[in-house]
User: Which sequence fits this backbone?
């Protein structure tokens, strides 16, 4: 009986596994091979050079600057996004004036928060490129100049350009996690909130003692997704910033350097080496994040 069941399951899995091997595993393996060649995207037989591309990476100051920028985004983007999203989700679901109900119009606000997810990333980048215009016609600088202050170079000042990019990334991501955390909070029985409220728990205690422990698995997943997104920031940086990662490489990230080396400098072998490093950074982050955030599951 078990043999026939195994054959039945294997029959259904054969095609998906084959497609996964062909379209996912094979390209990864090919990238690892190309990373050890000097292939420029033209020759049919690239020259094998071993680990030379990885040795070059050690002396590439622009690449390591991109790694540092990804590191900043990796730390701050999940913290800010999850913190803001939890605040708004808790407000929508438990912040009402009557008992522990949500606020009036919570469904409408969820739609409003989710709206940035409907926009393509490139459109978001173009919109904020106009919002951050250094002249007085930019939305933010029009307010700044109306206050009698000098316009701020949000994307032209190397000291604040990365923080402007971070603000856009958080703005775009918050809405999705508001909806995600709202769904998680909606699954928590109201009896728990009511019992804690009767025992004298305030809003802060309801959040830290009831909501946060019961929502931890959802937060853990969100943390991993946001970390991977922070390591794979490309479209916003490439479209929105000057010089596609400028000024003076102040906003460049690993994905932008991979694209630049592959499709502008035609150094596909070197770009593949960067891709391999990014792959291990991403996998390493996911493993570490899951282990550090592991805790005993709370049943309800």
Assistant:
């Amino acid at each position: 009986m078990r043999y026939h069941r195994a054959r039945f399951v294997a029959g259904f899995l054969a095609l998906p596994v084959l497609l996964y091997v062909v379209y996912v595993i094979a390209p990864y393996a090919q990238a690892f091979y190309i990373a050890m060649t000097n292939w420029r995207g033209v020759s049919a037989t690239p020259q094998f050079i071993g680990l030379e591309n990885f040795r070059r990476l050690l002396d590439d100051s622009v690449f390591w600057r991109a790694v540092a920028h990804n590191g900043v985004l990796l730390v701050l983007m999940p913290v800010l996004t999850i913190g803001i999203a939890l605040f708004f989700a808790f407000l929508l679901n438990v912040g009402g004036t009557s008992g522990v109900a949500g606020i009036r119009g919570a469904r409408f606000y969820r739609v409003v928060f989710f709206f940035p997810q409907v926009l393509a990333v490139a459109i978001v980048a173009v919109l904020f490129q106009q919002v951050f215009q250094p002249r007085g016609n930019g939305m933010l600088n029009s307010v700044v100049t109306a206050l009698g202050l000098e316009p701020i170079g949000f994307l032209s000042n190397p000291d604040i350009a990365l923080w402007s990019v971070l603000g856009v990334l958080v703005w775009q991501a918050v809405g999705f996690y508001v909806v995600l955390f709202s769904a998680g909070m909606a699954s928590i029985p109201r009896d728990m909130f009511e019992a804690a409220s009767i025992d004298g728990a305030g809003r802060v205690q309801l959040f830290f003692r009831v909501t946060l422990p019961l929502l931890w698995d959802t937060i853990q997943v969100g943390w991993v997704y946001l970390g991977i997104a922070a390591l794979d920031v490309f479209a916003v940086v490439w479209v929105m910033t000057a010089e596609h990662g400028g000024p003076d490489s102040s906003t460049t990230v690993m994905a932008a350097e991979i694209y630049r080396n592959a499709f502008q400098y035609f150094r596909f072998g070197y770009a593949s080496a960067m891709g391999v490093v990014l792959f291990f950074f991403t996998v390493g982050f996911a493993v570490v994040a899951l282990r550090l955030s592991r805790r005993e599951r709370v049943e309800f």
